């Protein structure tokens, strides 16, 4: 289940792949797996379940990906833009095969669907392997695009996210709704370039140009905070197989909210203007990085 869009002439070499693994709300997915809502336990807490699916999606990430792709194409690049069309809250398209299943369904239902979920994700991996080969042949780049909650969940004075289960869907969501709203707890743009051991695995030209451009345009950022390219994550998988980097944007930066401290993750509305502005900036930096990288070869 992949949505794929191409930009620029088909005869030119591929310059960029943009992937949004977490933006799906699951419409096509739920049609393909009617057993989920036919399950009595899921049906009994359907609104709670859908609230969880909504919260876990990377709202605005695919719109940002399309904005970056369109801007790159206007700069003369050929771009392929992908969305994994299954909800992260159930099957995490941003994780490798052994770690992609979330424990958000009743146990018996999950066990009955597990093999089909894994096959679906494996088909995405197969397509990605084809794109890695194409990118490596053309010395192109992959950008892994995410959005995240704007504030860190906090438990017992520690920044930590408690894992989900079907039984605790409501409390899982609540930890994000109740996350302390303060400048100290506000997440910044995360440029992800290192693995869990601190090893730099992203393309250095991309990292440098993106960080400099964001800072120059007034955006605050951190590198590998709060996330890094853990070996269980597909961003690590990308970076180890092609020239890539991951970008995680706090959701308030893609919303209509003018004040992050008043931002409501439950009712977020995407700002097309902000997505276009940030997309154009990321595209310009990425284009310059690609030129520098190819000149170095």
Notable features of this structure?
7-stranded mixed β-sheet; alpha/beta; two-stranded antiparallel ribbon; 297 residues
Structure description:
- The chain is of the alpha/beta class.
- It is 43% helix and 14% strand.
- The strands form two sheets. It has a seven-stranded mixed β-sheet with strand order 1-3-2-4-9-7-8, with helices on both faces.
- β5 and β6 form a beta hairpin.
- α4 (46-56) packs across α7 (169-177), α5 packs across α10 (272-296) and α8 (204-216) packs across α10.
- The longest helix has 32 residues, at 107-138.
Furnish the topology, listing elements before pairings:
Blueprint: E1 2-7, E2 16-20, H1 27-32, H2 35-38, H3 40-44, H4 46-56, H5 61-74, E3 79-84, H6 107-138, E4 141-148, E5 154-155, E6 158-159, H7 169-177, E7 189-192, H8 204-216, E8 221-223, H9 234-241, E9 244-250, H10 272-296
Parallel strand pairs: 2-3, 2-4, 4-9, 7-8
Antiparallel strand pairs: 1-3, 5-6, 7-9
Helix pairs in contact: 4-7, 5-10, 8-10
Structure, briefly:
Helices cover 43% and strands 14% of the residues. It has 297 residues and is α/β, with parallel strands linked by helices.
- Helix-strand makeup class: alpha/beta
Helicity level, as a percent range?
Answer: 40-55%
Mean pLDDT: 94
Task: Report the uncertain regions.
Answer: none
Which outline best applies? globular
- Strand line-up of the largest beta sheet: 1-3-2-4-9-7-8
Q: What share of residues are in beta strands?
A: 5-15%
**C-alpha end-to-end distance:** 35 Å
Radius of gyration: 19 Å
Please write the string of helix (H) and strand (E) elements: EEHHHHHEHEEEHEHEHEH
According to DSSP, the number of beta strands is 9
Number of helices: 10
């Amino acid at each position: 289940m992949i949505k794929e869009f191409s930009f620029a002439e088909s005869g030119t070499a591929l310059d960029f792949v943009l992937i949004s693994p977490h933006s799906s709300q699951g419409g096509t997915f739920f049609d393909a797996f009617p057993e989920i809502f036919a399950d009595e336990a899921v049906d009994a807490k359907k609104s709670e379940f859908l609230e969880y699916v909504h919260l876990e999606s990377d709202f605005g990430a695919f719109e940002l990906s399309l904005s970056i792709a369109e801007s790159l194409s206007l700069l003369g690049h050929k771009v392929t833009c992908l969305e994994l069309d299954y909800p992260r809250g159930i099957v995490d398209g941003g994780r490798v095969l052994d770690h992609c299943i979330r424990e958000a369904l009743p146990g018996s239902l999950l066990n009955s669907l597990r093999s089909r979920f894994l096959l679906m994700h494996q088909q995405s991996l197969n397509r990605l392997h084809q794109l890695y080969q194409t990118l490596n042949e053309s010395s192109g780049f992959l950008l892994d695009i995410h959005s995240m909650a704007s504030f860190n969940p906090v438990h017992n004075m520690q920044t930590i996210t408690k894992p989900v289960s079907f039984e605790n869907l409501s409390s899982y969501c609540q930890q994000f709704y109740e996350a302390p709203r303060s400048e100290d707890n506000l997440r910044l743009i995360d440029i992800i370039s290192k693995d869990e051991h601190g090893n730099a695995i992203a393309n250095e030209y991309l990292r440098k140009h993106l960080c400099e451009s964001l800072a120059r345009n007034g955006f605050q950022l951190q590198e590998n905070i709060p996330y890094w390219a853990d070996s269980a994550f597909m961003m690590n998988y990308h970076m180890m197989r092609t020239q890539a980097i991951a970008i995680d944007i706090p959701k308030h930066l893609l919303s209509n909210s003018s004040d992050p401290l008043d931002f409501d993750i439950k009712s977020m509305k995407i700002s097309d203007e902000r997505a276009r502005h940030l997309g154009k900036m990321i595209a310009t930096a990425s284009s310059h990085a690609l030129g520098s990288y190819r000149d170095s070869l």
